[in-house]
Amino acid sequence: MIIFDCDGVLVDSEILSCGTDARMMTEAGFPITQEDLFQNYIGWPKPKIFDAVADRRGAPWPDDLLARAEAVLHERIPNELLPVDGVADVLAALDVPFAVASSSSVHKLRLSLDTCDLTRFFDGHIYSAEQVARGKPAPDVFLLAASQIGSDPADTVVVEDSPAGITAARRAGMRAIGFAGGSHCLPSHADRLRTAGAVTVVHHMRDLPAAFAELGVGG
């Protein structure tokens, strides 16, 4: 079985999401860049990101800041979000069970997949951290996806673009392939994924089938 993260793996959304959050946080009185968010928080559930940056700020956010940031992002997605280049070809060629397991909310996850015409590939196997007790880097959402398909974690490979996601896969007893091809990926990104425990890192979707073959999955 293969489990794909969504943001930064299937859809090139991190630059939209982190850009929106950085602007909203800055306007709320804590100057922060999208690069800071790329480096430190991608892969985390959005409420956890806002809580962590509030701790750095030393004060809580306005009560509605997270909701407003999410509303702005949801308005941008239908007009600006693009799939990761080549991902539809990879999904269409797979002949093993696969799922998506994301830190995004259920609404944002489905909106993103629908916008990029990717929902059709997953046959209902679309899982959000909202459905489990703990988000990444905890393993819960990956274990949920594997259990729903009936896959042993040891036979499951995860494709992830964040150190938090790689850590979650390892904690689930799964092997992880790092993906460093998103528009948010800084020069150090591949090394950070390897340090987190990725067994290999690819920089373009065209290289993913070969990585699957090396691990004995994917057809």
Q: What report would you give on this structure?
A:
It contains ten helices and six strands; from the N terminus they run E-H-H-H-H-H-E-H-E-H-E-H-E-H-E-H. Strand 2, helix 6 (106-115) and strand 3 form a beta-alpha-beta unit. It is an alpha/beta fold and 219 residues long. It is globular, with a radius of gyration of 16 Å. The chain folds into two domains: 2-12 and 82-214, HAD superfamily/HAD-like (Rossmann fold); 14-80, Orthogonal Bundle (DNA polymerase, domain 1), CATH 1.10.150.
Labels describing this entry:
alpha/beta, 219 residues, six-stranded parallel β-sheet, DNA polymerase, domain 1, 46% helix, Rossmann fold, globular, 10 helices
Number of domains: 2
| Binned strand content | 5-15%
Overall strand count: 6
From the alpha carbons, calculate the radius of gyration and give it in angstroms. Answer: 16 Å
So what's the overall shape?
Answer: globular
Enumerate the strands of the largest sheet in spatial order, edge to edge or round the barrel. 3-2-1-4-5-6
Helix-strand sequence: EHHHHHEHEHEHEHEH
What is this structure's SSE topology?
Blueprint: E1 2-4, H1 14-27, H2 34-41, H3 46-57, H4 65-80, H5 87-93, E2 98-102, H6 106-115, E3 126-128, H7 140-149, E4 157-160, H8 163-171, E5 175-179, H9 189-196, E6 200-202, H10 208-214
Parallel strand pairs: 1-2, 1-4, 2-3, 4-5, 5-6
Helix pairs in contact: 1-2, 1-4, 8-9
Q: Nutshell version of this structure?
A:
It contains ten helices and six strands, in the order βαααααβαβαβαβαβα. It is α/β, with parallel strands linked by helices. Helix 1 crosses helix 2 and helix 8 packs parallel to helix 9.
